[in-house]
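Example 3.2
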Amino acid sequence: MDTEIAALCIVGIMIVMDFLTGFAKAVKNHDVSSGKMRDGLWHKVSFVALAEILEHGQRVLDMGFSVPIIIPTCVYIVLTEVASVIENLSEINPELHDSPILALFRSSKEGD
């Protein structure tokens, strides 16, 4: 349970970071859209809520097996949030685009 709470806290922090960097990027580009922000937030919250319902529901509805869902869902969301924050930061500050730090996160498949 402690791992689950820690994972959910990290997801929450990453969602806030993505929201803040996305908002800063939108302000910079004069493209603030509350609909985009609301949709992104609902998608992430719905993933976490579904994982919570399924994992804890397995205790009540015996399917003959138990599958951990919350932690893998949190890992997936954190990884996508990290990518989004990096993308937002490089758009806010174009000098970061070619920085060695961001190169660590860039896919070798990207053809810049």
